[in-house]
Amino acid sequence: MLSAMYIKKLPYFLIGQIINIDLINKKTLVRFECLMRSYREQWN
Fold first, then answer.
1. CA gap 18, 27 in Å, rounded
2. Beta carbons within 8 Å of 22's beta carbon, 6+ residues apart
3. What is the pTM assigned to this prediction?
4. Cα–Cα dist 37/29, whole Å
5. CB within 8 A of 29, min separation 6: which ones?
6. How far apart are the first and last CA of the chain?
7. How far apart are CA 27 and CA 14, in angstroms?
8. Cα 27 from chain centroid (whole Å)
9. Within the chain, which residues score under 70 in pLDDT?
């Protein structure tokens, strides 16, 4: 029974973690996108 409840709650927990990570790392993600763009421009 415990594992079934855990499995039911796990997707919501993962979604929450992804949202938290997204909010925290928004600036880092923007920097990463800029780096990837410059990297692609060098090879194109």
1. 15
2. 29
3. 0.35
4. 12
5. 22
6. 55
7. 21
8. 12
9. 1-2, 44
